[in-house]
Automatic annotation (TrEMBL):
Belongs to the short-chain dehydrogenases/reductases (SDR) family. One of its GO terms (molecular function) is oxidoreductase activity, acting on the CH-OH group of donors, NAD or NADP as acceptor. It comes from the Bacteria. PROSITE patterns: ADH_SHORT. Keywords: Oxidoreductase. InterPro entries: NAD(P)-bd_dom_sf (IPR036291), Sc_DH/Rdtase_CS (IPR020904), SDR_fam (IPR002347). This is Short-chain dehydrogenase.
Length: 272
C-alpha cells in the first residue's frame, strides 16, 4: 500500500522485536535498510531476511550507551548507504524497571537517559543534518511508550525518558519542518517481544494483561510496524510532531492506574 521504493532507512534496535518488524515492513515496501544494535548475530539474521526480500541491507553493530556512539552510527550509515531517508529510533530496554525508585543510582539514570533520550536526540540531529545537506524530505520516527504519557508507579526513570522523547519529537518536528523533514513517535502499550517475554510466560499472564486493554489482547509487533509504515510514508506528508498511541485503547480506560504491581517486576515491599 505504501511505497518505500528508492528510500534508505536506518533502524536502531533492528535486531529483534519492534525494530526488526519495522525493518522488514520497510524492506517489503521497497526500502534498503541498515539495522543497528549490539548483537551482531541478530543483526545478521535481520539483514539476511531483508536480502531474501530482494533489498539491500547492512548490519551496524553499536552500543548506543557509549558517548558519541549515536552520532558515529549515523556517520557509518551514511558511509554505507550514501543517504538516510528514514530514521527509526527503536533501540531500548526496560529502563531499570526492576529497581525500586529508592534504589536508583546515578549510573541507572545515565544509562537510561543515554540509551533512550540522548541516543534518539543525536541520531535525529545528525540524520536531519544530512537530509538538509542532501535536500531529502526525510522522516524520523521514535518508538516511545504509553508509559511516557501516563505515570506508572515504579517506572519513573523509564516513563520520564520516554516522555522526554515525546517532547523532543514535537520540538524537532517544528524545527526540522521548515526543511520538509517530519518527526513523529509511536507510543505502544505492551507488545509481545523479547523485552517483555518474562511477563507473558503463562496463559494466566496473557489473560491477565490482555484485560488491561479495551481491545482485549496485548499488542503484536505488526500493530506497531503498520503504523510505522504509514508515519514515514509519503502519504503521511502532512503529519509531524505526533505521538501516536498504539495500545488497544489503554489510554482511554483508567487501566494505567490499575496496572498490577507484579508486572513491573519490582519486589513487593520495596515500593514507596
Ligand atoms: N515491547 C513492549 O511492550 C514495548 C512497549 C512500549 C515501548 N517499547 C519500546 O520499544 C522499543 C523496542 O522494544 P522491543 O520490545 O522491540 O525490545 P527488544 O525486543 O528487546 O529489542 C530492543 C532492541 O534494542 C537494542 N538495544 C538494546 N540496548 C542497546 C544498546 N545499548 N545499544 C544498541 N542497541 C540496543 C537490542 O539489541 P541488543 O540487545 O543486541 O543491543 C534490540 O535490538 C524500545 O525503545 C522499548 O522501550 C516496547
Amino acid at each position: 500500500m505504501f511505497s518505500y521504493a528508492g528510500r534508505r532507512a536506518l533502524i536502531t534496535g533492528g535486531g529483534r522485536g519492534i525494530g526488526r518488524a519495522i525493518a522488514l515492513a520497510y524492506a517489503k515496501a521497497g526500502a534498503d535498510v541498515a539495522v543497528a544494535a549490539r548483537s551482531p548475530g541478530q543483526l545478521d539474521d535481520t539483514v539476511r531476511e531483508i536480502k531474501e526480500l530482494g533489498r539491500e541491507a547492512w548490519a551496524l553493530p553499536v552500543d548506543l550507551t557509549a558517548r558519541g556512539a549515536p552520532q558515529d552510527l549515523v556517520t557509518r550509515a551514511l558511509d554505507v548507504m550514501g543517504r538516510i531517508d528514514v530514521l527509526v529510533n527503536s533501540a531500548g530496554d526496560t529502563g531499570r524497571l526492576e529497581r525500586s525508585t529508592f534504589d536508583l543510582t546515578d549510573d541507572d539514570v545515565d544509562h537510561v537517559y543515554q540509551l533512550h533520550v540522548k541516543s534518539a536526540l543525536f541520531t535525529s540531529i545528525k540524520a536531519a543534518e544530512s537530509m538538509v545537506r542532501l535536500g531529502i524530505p526525510g522522516a524520523i520516527l521514535n518508538i516511545t511508550s504509553t508509559g511516557g504519557l501516563f505515570p506508572t508507579p515504579g517506572a519513573v526513570l523509564y516513563g520520564s525518558a520516554k516522555s522526554a522523547i515525546n517532547h523532543l519529537t514535537s520540538t524537532l518536528g517544528m524545527e526540522f519542518g521548515t526543511h520538509g523533514i517530519r518527526v513523529n513517535a509511536i507510543a505502544p502499550g505492551l507488545i509481545d517481544t523479547p523485552l517483555v517475554a518474562d511477563r507473558l510466560v503463562s496463559e494466566e499472564d496473557q489473560i491477565d494483561l490482555a484485560s488491561f486493554y479495551p481491545i482485549n489482547r496485548v499488542g503484536h509487533v505488526d500493530d506497531v510496524s503498520a503504523a510505522a509504515l504509514y508515519l514515514c510514508s509519503a502519504e503521511a506528508g502532512w503529519v509531524s510532531g505526533v505521538t501516536l498511541l498504539i495500545n488497544g485503547g489503554q489510554h482511554a480506560s483508567n487501566a494505567m492506574f490499575r496496572w498490577p504491581r507484579r508486572h513491573n517486576e519490582v519486589p513487593a515491599g520495596r515500593r514507596i
